[in-house]
Amino acid sequence: MRVNERTAELTTKKQKLTAEVTRRKKAETAVRETEEKYGTLFDSSSHAIAITTLDGEIVDANQDYQDMVGYTLKELEGTNVRKLTPKKWHKLEAQAMKDFMSEGYGTFEKEYIRKDGTIFPVSLSAWLIRDRQGNPAGIGAFVRDITERKKAESAVRETDQKYRTLFDSNSHGIAITTLDGEIVDANQAYQDMAGYTLKELEGTNVRKLTPKKWHKLEAAATKHLMSEGYGTFEKEYIRKDGTIFPVSLSAWLITDGQGKSRSDHQAH
After folding, report:
1. CA-CA distance, 144 to 63, in Å (whole number)?
2. Which domain holds residue 80?
């Protein structure tokens, strides 16, 4: 009797192991097919990219992802992304993945744990990888470190307490961005001027609203702003409907409670 129980137990374990190996092989095959199509993008992208099995085990990751989390590819292979995620996010991530599996794509925010133990916020844009037969075989994800954006948002909240009424009621278009130019907040006048809602503007880089011929001048103006703390210049904007119009910008740096620059505040 005991021998039969032991045999049944070993058979079950073997079946589970076989299933896991099959899932992993399936994901690895899908990864190879994906890399054949997008190999250059995978290796040269400025975004961190990871590919996992449907259960979350990392199969491949580009250099930016490795640098971001502090692990080598060899260390990451076979590691479940839950190990890189603080426990408080596990439930939210499980729900996000459930929604993702039904839609085939999804975006959400959580935190990561680096190899050295530091915790930092990330934004993930994930998509379902399918095999040649169209069956789900793995998951690909662009992962972005959003530490600076979160710091800027914190600075915005501090600024809001002082200037929210002025910000909302001002007849001038006002936007608050990260140091890299991603819009964090914008008043109604700015939204009306650009033709976008606040939801559409959040996370959008101001370069997207600027004709290419002005990018070089704007880069020089921003450099001056960083050294002086303020600046004024003229350029053009592109509305949502595609029309181009001239604007004058008066920009200044917003600092956090420690006096460090977190974002620039632009009035248009």
Report:
1. 13
2. 2-145
